[in-house]
Amino acid sequence: ATQVKKICCLGAGYVGGPTCAVIAYKCHDIDVTIVDLNEARIAAWNSDHLPIYEPGLDKIVFERRGKNLSFTTEVEKSVLEADLIFVSVNTPTKKSGLGAGFAADLAYVESATRQIADVAKSSKIVVEKSTVPCRTAESMRTILEANSNENIRFDILSNPEFLAEGTAINDLLYPDRVLIGGLQTPEGIKAQQALVEVYARWVPTDRIITTNLWSSELSKLAANALLAQRISSINALSAICEATGADIDEVSYACGRDSRIGPKFLKASVGFGGSCFQKDILNLVYLSEQLNLPEVAAYWKQVVDLNEYQKKRFVSRVIKTLFNTITNKKIAILGFAFKKDTGDTRESAAITLCKDFIQENAKVRIYDPKVSIEQIFLDLSEPGVIDSAKQLKNRVTIAKSAYEATEDADAMIITTEWDEFKELDYEKIYNQMHKPAFIFDGRLILDAEKLRNIGFRDYYCQLIT
Ligand code: NAD
Ligand code: UDX
């Protein structure tokens, strides 16, 4: 099989950066260059403050950077020299045009593919790392083949990424599986084998799955849809718990002990966030509609609808509990990232909550250990969130600690499950809050009994009355 010696990765984001840094860390004889059009992002990758926060990432980057790992904006040179190219660019949900609100915007994938086609002077293995609709590799192949000749050939692989933010390095070092799809032709299989050999340096071969291209592309959308479906299922059950006095953590534990169900991904919450789940399910919904499968589309769409419902349900619970009005009340928001151990806020439930509270004329005071002030204001001033700059300025403040956020607050809301929120001095918090003091635990991480004993007037441990 072809031996990969130089890898180029187009896209230095949450996926391209960590994934290729780990390849460099595990394969010292492979030269890895990570490229991005965004100069600021590349400058950050080359500095002491990496552009993304991910436990364990610094160590790996600092160890290999300047050796076999580099970050650059020089697309042409990097593509020209590489024998394998990862396309790890963003594929957001389309905001306008055909399929708006559902379909994946493939403009970045296409322009990255065209760049490769324009620049390449030797054969390349091109790997889809981005999450794409099923059969995207077909379009990439058409673009690349229109530019190939007897001396240059392009082989396309699909190698979707399954890392979760906050645990990316561990997920990359010890993956449950690595999936590599390729055309089942002699050349396709040879290319597939070349990438298998890269991963086989540290991943046991029984964890490297090879499939045809389309299965690989679809498996990524399917895996995210199945994971998100579990959360929406448990969140739907949490609504029943609220109405009956059943305890969702107990239900979740009891169900999860069935080895066929399993315990993971059954934690009820204020709703899932992150850049992937919603986007990928909507992508699957669109694909189903395109394939004329409306029942299938409706089935998956419900996973996203339920998630929206869960956020709304949480907000109305807060308002109801605070005597049906939160006008000018102070609400402490603990956590702005979409989950713990990341600074990423994309699709974070906290954004929707803040928006709704501000529409009710509350004052929100936000604290997150890893999200910058600039990022919070950027997210809240996105179109459709808080449109008036004046309202944003008057209604939102950022605190430097959980204690600062809860000073004089009427309610405290846990929106992200950061470990430090479990360790806070809740007596101190209670004493400085406005009475009656309320806590709403949107992540079910606190000990309800203990808080009630401190005096918190009401405590919704699982959104239960
Ligand atoms: P991101 O926005 O963090 O990074 C993408 C980067 O690509 C950006 O920095 C952008 O400037 C760059 N880019 C765009 N066009 C380019 C081009 N032609 N050449 C070079 N750089 C270019 O996105 P991400 O979170 O890393 O996600 C990337 C892909 O991986 C998406 O398809 C996503 O669905 C998928 N994915 C993400 C995760 C995750 O946890 N974030 C997990 C699995 C899969
Ligand atoms: C997800 C997939 O897990 C990963 O395999 C894929 O590659 C990218 O998308 P990510 O979005 O980074 O990863 O984080 P994940 O841990 O899946 O959490 C997503 C959201 O679901 C978070 O908001 C999290 O708090 C929430 N969640 C997760 C729950 O509400 N309950 C759970 O039981 C698990």
Q: Helix segment count? A: 18
User: Helical amount among residues, as a percent range?
Assistant: 40-55%
Average pLDDT confidence is: 95
Distance from N terminus to C terminus (CA atoms, Å) equals 63 Å
Bound molecules: nicotinamide-adenine-dinucleotide, uridine-5'-diphosphate-xylopyranose
According to DSSP, the number of beta strands is 14
Low-confidence stretches: 461-465
Question: What's the gyration radius in Å?
Answer: 24 Å
Name the shape in a single word.
globular
Main sheet overview: 8 strands, mixed
- Strand arrangement, major sheet: 3-2-1-4-5-6-7-8
**Assembly level:** single chain
Structural class: alpha/beta
Q: What is the gist of this entry?
A:
The protein has 465 residues and is an alpha/beta fold. It is 44% helix and 13% strand.
Give an overview of the whole structure.
With 465 residues, the protein is α/β, with parallel strands linked by helices. 44% of the residues lie in helices and 13% in strands. It has 18 helices and 14 strands. The chain has helices at residues 16-26, 39-45, 57-64, 75-81, 107-119, 136-145, 168-173, 186-199, 213-244, 248-256, 277-290, 294-321, 349-359, 373-380, 389-395, 402-406, 426-432, 448-454, and strands at residues 6-10, 31-35, 69-72, 84-87, 124-128, 154-158, 178-182, 208-212, 330-334, 363-367, 396-398, 411-414, 438-441, 458-460. Strands 3-2-1-4-5-6-7-8 form an 8-stranded mixed sheet, sandwiched between helices. A 6-stranded parallel sheet has the order 11-10-9-12-13-14, sandwiched between helices. Helix 12 crosses helix 13 (349-359). The longest helix has 32 residues, at 213-244. It is globular, with a radius of gyration of 24 Å. Mean pLDDT is 95; it is low at 461-465. Bound molecules: nicotinamide-adenine-dinucleotide and uridine-5'-diphosphate-xylopyranose (UDX). Nicotinamide-adenine-dinucleotide binds next to helix 5. It comes from Rhizophagus clarus. It holds the Pfam family UDPG_MGDP_dh_N.
